[in-house]
Structures are given as structure tokens and as C-alpha cells.
Specification:
The structure holds two protein chains of two kinds. By secondary structure, chain A is an all-alpha fold. In chain A, 71% of the residues lie in helices and 0% in strands. In chain A, helix 1 runs antiparallel to helix 2 and helix 5 crosses helix 8. Chain A is globular, with a radius of gyration of 19 Å. Chain B is built from eight helices and 31 strands. In chain B, the strands form six sheets. In chain B, strands 1, 2, 3, 4, 5, 6, 7, 8, 9, 10, 11, 12 and 13 form a 13-stranded mixed sheet that branches. Chain B has a six-stranded antiparallel sheet with strand order 18-19-25-30-27-28. In chain B, strands 14, 24, 26, 29 and 31 form a five-stranded antiparallel sheet that branches. In chain B, strand 3 and strand 4 form a beta hairpin. In chain B, helix 1 packs across helix 2 and helix 2 packs across helix 3. Classes of the chains: A mainly alpha, B alpha+beta. The interface between A and B is large, with 67 and 51 residues.
């Protein structure tokens, strides 16, 4: 289901702690992305990553050395997501069960390759943004300020800011796509 | 297929709303429809979230339980014992791991505290220097003013003023240093400061280290960090930094966004440090402090130093902690009591005004007398059942199941009863005080005690009109009661939540509401600790409403409102039309004079 990562074969010390941490750190982005894609909320996804890490460590003696750590991790993360959704059901808006299944089926298997290619290119694309757009992105992501709070601070209607953020994200996405296409053709 | 997402910006807007957590159910369904119908949209979703993730700050490594290092292999006998006691060992190991994890976390906290302490030391030192310079500037100003007041030294003053007037050669540190701006007033309602010259307008910027005393009303302050507080008068406080304040006494409710995590409220006895949350704080003048958590977590620390403290407790949603006195920290799990705090400045006019007047009708609605309760709430006087809406027991008055005093499960309502002396002594509060003058009645009642306004289904008319005015609204509240019924408020408990106010009197207007029975008669009573303090006999619809004003002392514990059938009972055993209104029922507050906070 999830592509095998070569880091599973990295040399390891004998300590289970070291082995676990090494494997976990090598796959942390993937585990986080597999949670975020199912629970698209940063705060919830971070909590779930924490819980997933704890469960993985508790069950680490069940993990078979040499098998697919990424697949094992993502399956635990999915289980944590399902539990989390069950607890929150009816209390807040969440993706439907059908949609979750569709995403898990269609997206999770190719998530690793998405991360590999796109994250490294993103940095270059950020430099293409206008000064104004870059400030907005910095406020939202580096200062960790919500769009609602940004709208209050810059005294602009929130809907306008949603549109602006959507436009900037879309521009970054298109830029990443173009660069991938260019790399492939060259 | 979707070839160019630029042609469909709606999808990216939906995704932004989704990630910000502000998407509505309709919009979510719209998004899901897109994703389900178009595989390219699904790819777009994955790419979009990848971009979002790439832009976010790098995530810290989750804390995992670090186990003890490898142990030596057990012997065969030990292995056997281990097999037998495997479950028990695992349990012990789990506990050890948890303890170790707690120790790791504590160690990390200590490290963070040390870093913070150093940072704070530097900031404090900077602030101290600024304050010193500011004080020197003020002292110079005062000396100057004294000089002006001295008539005999007019000439000398002129000379001195000339001699000591600032020159370009003055050192730079002689310039006045104003304390920094740390917050802004973002909203207020009925607010009055003790210092009448203090600004009240929205958008007024507030400087640090100024003693502030809110005498009346509500004020919302937004710190530069983004933390928002609503203060309920009476309230004495000082803003200290852009993310810290000192609450000498009073109530506040705080909403702390993620970027202001760590927002701190200090008081004389305790300190509350936020961990990204919503919470309320009550600081009593004697040093007692309570922290109520509505969402997220806070740390309650003993003492007024946020960094150096003997004990602390982490409180989660639905928990409250209390520090009683200066050295006693007790934490108890109690139900969330958001009703004690005004958490939003009301948009509509309200009757209750913090620091001046508490609305007893709001207290029937579960509130604190400042509009935090529910309008249109009923309490059955026969069994104490609390319901939303306007309830009657039947077309006519029905006999009560018993005439016992029934305790009510509410914060400040002590209990209810159907008064009838013919069945025995009538207790009117949970302490068992007897109302010896209570008349004999037929023990019937019809409507629940009610705090709103309702339209009678029969004649489509409001049942809360006296003297031509409609009551039972948030700005003109009323308690409506049908003969025969009584309700008792626990004013001692209400008093215990006040910070710096006495309850000095009870006021209301009472009368028989407009309705289809013009000649009906009924009696109104107000009792304090079982003693009759007000009695209006045979009130009729055509009469003007009567004003009630009773002085109260700090020793008074229970206030009872009661209505009973009038002398027309022989003509109408069902008390038809006996619909009594206590309009604008209020507890009037006054500052505790001479109290040092």
C-alpha cells in the first residue's frame, strides 16, 4: 500500500530506542502527511502524530525487522485517525466516511512520491511570489496566525483573504507542477 | 477532467476553508462532490495539502516513551516466573515508563522555565530601568508642580525654572519614558472606571503597568499577542506585558489563540498559565483564586510568580482549580461553570450590569445575573424539574403532589415549593427556615415559575404585561408565578462569587398580569431567611404595580418570592388568572467600602 523506503535498511545500533527513533524520523513526514490528508487540520493532525508515535513505540516489539516500516506506521496512523473521528463524530464537521475511504485508497499509495518531489521544489517557487503574497504566507505559516486573525490585523474582509490565500496556494501548486514537468522532459 | 485549476478557483478556496477549520457543512459537501467526481480534483487535493505541509513550520519530533536501557537476560527460573506474572510485570513496566516519561517532560519543562526565566530576567531588568526613568520623570514633574503651588517662592521659582530648565546639553536619559502599549480596548458595555478620566472608547490603546479599576460594566481587552479577555466589574488589574496581566480582584474570561499560547494571569495567591485555550479566572480580594477551563488546558500555579512556584496543577477542559489563601492549593473536578463568566459582550441591551445590578430572572435561567442564563426557562414548583419553555400543568390549577420544600439542582436557586399551611409547617429554604405566617391554601398550582415571556395559546396575548408594559425580555426581565408557588434564591452563594461587592437590597415591581379574569385576586410575598419582609394582599389586575425595595445585609442567606391565592378563592377554587409578575427583580450591589485589594 505504501512504497517501501530505503531508509529501512539503514545501519542501526542495538538499542531498540535508537532503532525506533531512526526509523520514525526517516518516515515522520510521510506519517504526518498520511494523517493530515485524512484529518485536514494542523492541530488535530499534530495531536494524532503524537498519539501514533506513542502507539508505535508501545507496539515496536511487534514490528518485524526488515519489513515495511512505512506501511506499518501508516496503518497505525489510520487506526488512530478512525478512533479520533469516532470520538469527534457529531461534535464537529469532518470528511465523510466514503470520502475518507476514497482518499485512503487513491492518495495514500502515492503520497511518498508526492512528498519526495514536491517539497524540495516548493522552496524555489516561494521565491517567485510577490512581496505582498510572501508576507501573507509568512504571517500564516511562520507566525502561525490564522486567516481570521490576519484579516483582523490587516483590516481586510476575511473572504477576500480566503480568496488571496487560495490564489497563492494555487500559484505555488502550478509552479511546482511546471517544474516537475520541466525536470521530467529534460 | 479538470485540466487547469486556475479555471476553478473555487476548489482551492474550499480547501483553504477546510484547512482553516471554518468550512460549513454545505461547503464541505460541495468539496466532497468535486473530489468524488473528478480524479484530477483528488490529485489536486493531495498536492494542495502537500504544499500546505511544506509551508508549515517544521514539526518537532513527537515525544516518545524512552525506556530503560537493555536489561540483562533473565535466568530460566526468572523466565518461568515472568511467564506466570507476565501481565503484572507489564503493568509495572507501563507505570515505570509513564513515570519516566513524566520525568522527561518535567526535565524539559524545567529547561524551558530556565530559558524563560533568563529571558524574563532580561526583560524585567529592561522594564525596571524604564520604570525607574519614568518615575524619575514623574518625580521631576511633581516637584515642578509643587513649586508652582508655592506662592511665596514665585520669584525663586522663576529663577529656578530658568536655572533648571532642560537644555540641549541634558543627558538623553532625562527624557520621559512612557511604559509600552500592550493592549487595546476592543469593546465595552455600561463600563465605568474608578478614574472617570480614564478612556473608554473602543480602539483605545492601553499601556503597561497602570493600575486599572473597573467599577461597573464589561470591558473587552485584546492584548498585542492576540489574547482576548472580558473583564466583569468590579475588577482591579494591571496589564504587565503584551501577554501577561495581574488580576488583583475580579472576574475575567479569556480566549487565547494559538499564537498567544503562554498567556499568563497572575494574582496575589496564584498564577494561571495558558496552554492555548479558553478559561475563566476569579480572583477574590483575600487572595483566593479559581481557574475554570472551558476548552484546552491551563496550568494553575501556587503563588504569584509564574516561574518560581512550589506546586502546580494542570487543568483540562471541564475542570476547575482553586487556590484558597496563600499556601493552600486544592484542585477538584467540578462541572464546567461557564455561567459564572460573561464570555461575549452582549449585543442586545441587558438588565444585569456587572458591579451594580444582578438580574434574578437570569439566575432562574441558569445565569449569574448578567445575562449568561437562558431566557424562557421554567421550574416546576411541585418537583423542581427545570425545563426550557413555558409550561402549565393543566387547563386549571392542579393539586400539588406534596407541599414539601424541593431543592433545585441549580447554582443559585435553592429550591421551590407549593405553599400550604393547612398541611403543616411550611419550610421555605434548604436550611429548614419555617414561614410561620404562611396562609392556608388549597395546595393547587397551575403554571411553572417562569423567567421569559409567553403568548397564551387561547387569546394570543402576552401573559407578562403589567401597567401596560411587556416584561419577560432580557432588558425588562420578569419572574412569572402562578398561585400557589414559591421560589428561594441562595443569596449567600451568589455573594460568595462576588469580588468586591455587597448585596445591599432587593428591588422589583409586582402586579397581576393582564389576562381574561379581571377580578381575580392574589397575594405577593417576599421573605428573607423565612421572615416576612413584604406582603401585598389581594392584588388585582386593575391596581398599579407595587414597588418592592428591601434592604439586605451580609448576614442574609435566603431570599424567597411567593404568591398565594387571594380572598376570592371561594368563588374560584382554581385561582384562574392568578398570574403574578415580579418585574425587573434585582439584587443591587455596592462596592465594599475601604476594602484593600
Amino acid at each position: 500500500m505504501v512504497e517501501e523506503s530505503t531508509s529501512d535498511q539503514m545501519p542501526m545500533s542495538n538499542s531498540p530506542t535508537d532503532r525506533f527513533l531512526r526509523l520514525f524520523l526517516a518516515h515522520q513526514k510521510l506519517i504526518y502527511a498520511s494523517i493530515l490528508i485524512l484529518v485536514p487540520n494542523d492541530a488535530d493532525a499534530e495531536d494524532l502524530l503524537q498519539e501514533t508515535a506513542s502507539v508505535m513505540w508501545r507496539k515496536f516489539d511487534e514490528f518485524e525487522e526488515g519489513s515495511n516500516f512505512a506501511a506499518w506506521a501508516v496503518s497505525i496512523a489510520r487506526y488512530q485517525v478512525l478512533n479520533f473521528r469516532k470520538k469527534r463524530r457529531g461534535k464537529e464537521i469532518q470528511l465523510s466516511d466514503n470520502m475518507l475511504e476514497l482518499i485512503a485508497e487513491q492518495i495514500l499509495p502515492k503520497l511518498n512520491s508526492y512528498l519526495d518531489t514536491r517539497l524540495s521544489i516548493l522552496e524555489n517557487c516561494l521565491n517567485k511570489l510577490t512581496e505582498r503574497d510572501r508576507i501573507l504566507i509568512q504571517m500564516r505559516y511562520e507566525k502561525d496566525i490564522t486567516v481570521k486573525e490576519i484579516s483582523r490585523r490587516v483590516k481586510r474582509p476575511i473572504h477576500g483573504l480566503y480568496k488571496a490565500m487560495a490564489r497563492i496556494h494555487n500559484a505555488l501548486l502550478q509552479c511546482v507542477r511546471l517544474r516537475i514537468a520541466a525536470e521530467e522532459t529534460s | 477532467m479538470m485540466e487547469d485549476q486556475n479555471a476553478n478557483p473555487q476548489l482551492s478556496e474550499l480547501l483553504i476553508e477546510l484547512l482553516e477549520g471554518t468550512i460549513s457543512q454545505d461547503r464541505l459537501e460541495q468539496l466532497e462532490k468535486h473530489l468524488a467526481q473528478d480524479p484530477a480534483a483528488l490529485d489536486y487535493y493531495a498536492e494542495f495539502l502537500t504544499i500546505h505541509m511544506g509551508l508549515s513550520k517544521p514539526r518537532k519530533v513527537p515525544e516518545v516513551i524512552i525506556p530503560p536501557e537493555e536489561e540483562t537476560l533473565p535466568t530460566a527460573a526468572e523466565l518461568l516466573a515472568e511467564v506466570i506474572e507476565r501481565d503484572e510485570k507489564r503493568r509495572v513496566q507501563r507505570e515505570a515508563e509513564e513515570a519516566r516519561r513524566a520525568a522527561e517532560i518535567k526535565k524539559e519543562e524545567v529547561r524551558q522555565y530556565a530559558e524563560e526565566a533568563f529571558k524574563k530576567f532580561k526583560e524585567d531588568e529592561q522594564r525596571r530601568l524604564e520604570k525607574l526613568a519614568y518615575k524619575q520623570y514623574r518625580a521631576r514633574q511633581r516637584n515642578l508642580i509643587l513649586g508652582i503651588g508655592s506662592l511665596a517662592a514665585t520669584l525663586i521659582f522663576v529663577v529656578l525654572a530658568w536655572l533648571f530648565s532642560p537644555t540641549p546639553a541634558d543627558p538623553p536619559n532625562s527624557a520621559p519614558v512612557a511604559p509600552p502599549i500592550v493592549a487595546t480596548i476592543t469593546e465595552s458595555k455600561d463600563a465605568q472606571w474608578a478614574n472617570s478620566s480614564f478612556p473608554m472608547e473602543t480602539d483605545t490603546q492601553l499601556v503597561a503597568l497602570t493600575d486599572m479599576h473597573l467599577k461597573r460594566g464589561l470591558v473587552q481587552i485584546t492584548f498585542d499577542s492576540g489574547a482576548e479577555i472580558i473583564l466583569q466589574a468590579p475588577c482591579k488589574f494591571q496589564l504587565e506585558e503584551e501577554n501577561q496581566m495581574f488580576l488583583q480582584s475580579g472576574h475575567l474570561a479569556a480566549v487565547v489563540p494559538r499564537q498567544a499560547k503562554g498567556f499568563t494571569v497572575r494574582s496575589t495567591g496564584a498564577t494561571v498559565v495558558d496552554y492555548g485555550t479558553e478559561f475563566g479566572v476569579i480572583a477574590h480580594p483575600g487572595g483566593e483564586m479559581e481557574a475554570h477551563v472551558f476548552k484546552g488546558e491551563v496550568d494553575l500555579r501556587l503563588g504569584s510568580d509564574r516561574l518560581v512556584f512550589e506546586r502546580s496543577k494542570r487543568l483540562k477542559k471541564g475542570w476547575a482549580g482553586r487556590v484558597s489563601g496563600k499556601d493552600s492549593l486544592t484542585v477538584e473536578k467540578i462541572e464546567s461553570r461557564p455561567n459564572l463568566f460573561v464570555r461575549q459582550i452582549p449585543k442586545k441591551e441587558g438588565f444585569g450590569i456587572a458591579g451594580w445590578r444582578l438580574d434574578l430572572a437570569d439566575i432562574i435561567g441558569g445565569g449569574n445575573g448578567l445575562g449568561t442564563g437562558e431566557l424562557n426557562r421554567s421550574i416546576n414548583p411541585d418537583n423542581g424539574e427545570i425545563r426550557s419553555g413555558f409550561y402549565r400543568q393543566g387547563q386549571v390549577a392542579v393539586p400539588a403532589q406534596s407541599c414539601d420544600y424541593i431543592p433545585v439542582n441549580m447554582d443559585f436557586v435553592d429550591g421551590v415549593f407549593v405553599p400550604d399551611s393547612s398541611l403543616g409547617l411550611v419550610a421555605v429554604n434548604s436550611r429548614g427556615d419555617i414561614f410561620y405566617e404562611c396562609p392556608d391554601t388549597n395546595g393547587r398550582y397551575c403554571w411553572d415559575v417562569f423567567n421569559g415571556n409567553a403568548v397564551d395559546k387561547k387569546d394570543k396575548k402576552c401573559r407578562q404585561i403589567i401597567d401596560g408594559k411587556k416584561y419577560g425580555t432580557s432588558d425588562a426581565p420578569a419572574i412569572s408565578m402562578h398561585s400557589n408557588s414559591g421560589i428561594t434564591f441562595d443569596i449567600a452563594k451568589i455573594r460568595s462569587t462576588l469580588t468586591g461587592n455587597h448585596i445591599t437590597s432587593f428591588t422589583a415591581r409586582c402586579g397581576v398580569a393582564d389576562g381574561p379574569f379581571p377580578n381575580t385576586k392574589m397575594d405577593f410575598w417576599v421573605l428573607v431567611d423565612g421572615q416576612n419582609r413584604f406582603h401585598l394582599k389581594d392584588a388585582m389586575r386593575r391596581d398599579f404595580a407595587q414597588t418592592i425595595r428591601l434592604e439586605l445585609t451580609d448576614e442574609d442567606k435566603f431570599l424567597t418570592l411567593m404568591v398565594t391565592q387571594g380572598s376570592d378563592i371561594a368563588n374560584d377554587p382554581f385561582c384562574s388568572g392568578d398570574w403574578g409578575i415580579f418585574a425587573e427583580p434585582a439584587l443591587i450591589l455596592n462596592p465594599i467600602e475601604g476594602q484593600r485589594y
